[in-house]
Amino acid sequence: MASAMRWVDPGPWLLPLWLFLQMVVGARAGFPCVPRVVGHKAMVCVCNATYCDTLDPVSLPPLGTFAKYESSQDGRRFELSQGAMRSRPTRAGLSYSYNPFVHYQTIKGFGGSHTDAAAINIMRLSPEAQDRLLRSYFSEEGIEYNLLRLPMACSDFSTHAYSYDDKCPNDYDLTCFSLAPEDTKLRIPLLHRIQALSKRPLSLVASPWTAPAWLRTNNLVMGKGRLKGAAGDRYHKTWASYFLRFLDEYAKKNITFWAITPQNEPVLSVYIAQKNFPTNQFTPEEQRDFIIQDLGPALAASSHKKVQLIIHDDQRVNLPYWAKVIIGNSSAAQYVSGVGIHWYLDSVIPPEPTLEATYLLYPDFFLLYTESCNGFRSWEPKVDLGSWERGNRYSRNILTNLNSFVTGWIDWNLALDTEGGPNFVQNYVDSPIIVDAFRDEFYKQPMFYHLGHFSKFIPEGSVRVALTSQCRIGICQLQSAGFLRPDGVAVVVVLNDGFCDIAFSISDDQVGYIEDTARAASIQTYVWQRSW
């Protein structure tokens, strides 16, 4: 917001004065953040039943001017300013050239995951606070997520392991299949509220963690194991039918899905998951054969034939091999739309031999990041309130991947508690929103605002366009990406994760030059109209 003041929890009588001072200081895009200082250079924005910071709908500046939204470590949160385009550059240094006529991938969008843990934490708040949290993510006064991932039955972010058919062993006809209370009492009611709040079309993605115990080799609903038998047999046919029943039951609640994945982390969870972690192991060959003989034909012959099938749903280190095995097989490829990727091992291998190689091999199949979070490393804090660096990690990853042909990015849990749970295997992590149910308040972390610099301004259907840089050696520390929205509006996101301010310019041959300075430890989104 406009001020970088370090204010600790203004009380009820101070809040009107705080808001007045914020309005006097400068322009804003909605109601300001009420900050809470939680450590050295660490700050969260506090929301409760009576107040939460907001964003106005994006309003386009007049032709020949630009709008800038800035968030920074020193306390700005979507601070709005405007400036005039220059007819020619007035200074040397780092410069970007925006070219809307060179198109790359079409953007699907951005979002988070509606886990049991997220739903539990949201529902622990008062109804008014719940509403403010949901609006923060999905409404026009929030960051307008359009992607939402849901586990099919339990994930590790549940209070216990379960599937949708645990009561009847060897139930190959799925006569005992039923949604869990976590669906009917928590996730589905919240989904209906989210749908009512969102003006953008929501695309839901479903991923299974585990199958019923009687379908698994260890005869348990949790722990390392795989489906019994092989593709084409009654175990795999039943598992394919399980997907359809899930889609059927949600459709009865007026909830439809854009896509499904055959399995969450079919490779990684086998090697690092705890003893009781819910997972099904698949090799790429096994997933290929399951798609060819079971899941693909079952979907195609059902009322859910328009549901997209996303393979892999695991770390990019497995690419492009997984894509070659599955998409490289025409019998499987006919059922597949894209490749799902998680970020946890991104530091092991760069995007060029993985993401870009996969795109070049199979440009007609989208790449979508389906899960990411901070706090997953064993040596780091699970919840690190107010960490600006964790927001930086999100933006660095998103920009790198968007520039490597990725079409969208889905965060993990929408909301967690102050420990980073609940999670029945104690696999705690961080979240952009942390809920303190005892105080009936929630905290928007820097990660939330970093995500909003993409989700709010780059709607579905936008196209990444060429944004080339010219600079002297040693001053190219900024990360950036350019987009053209469906309404013809130009968008550029710029991240400065360094310690020094950096002056730069953006040229658009149609309208002129933006000259600005990216503050140290800041992210900014630039928006301007073009004359076509």
Automatic annotation (TrEMBL):
Domain of life: Eukaryota
Lipid bilayer topology: Peripheral membrane protein
SUPFAM superfamilies xref list: (Trans)glycosidases (SSF51445), Glycosyl hydrolase domain (SSF51011)
Enzyme class: hydrolase
Pathway entry: Steroid metabolism; cholesterol metabolism
Record-linked Pfam families: Glyco_hydro_30 (PF02055), Glyco_hydro_30C (PF17189)
Subcellular location: Lysosome membrane
Signal peptide start and end residues: 1-29
Domain Glycosyl hydrolase family 30 beta sandwich residue range list: 461-526
Protein EC: 3.2.1.45
InterPro entries: GH, GH30_C, Glyco_hydro_30, Glyco_hydro_30_TIM-barrel
Domain Glycosyl hydrolase family 30 TIM-barrel span(s) in chain numbering: 107-458
Keyword line: Glycosidase, Hydrolase, Lipid metabolism, Signal, Sphingolipid metabolism
Keyword Acyltransferase: no
Protein name: Glucosylceramidase
Species for this entry: Pogona vitticeps
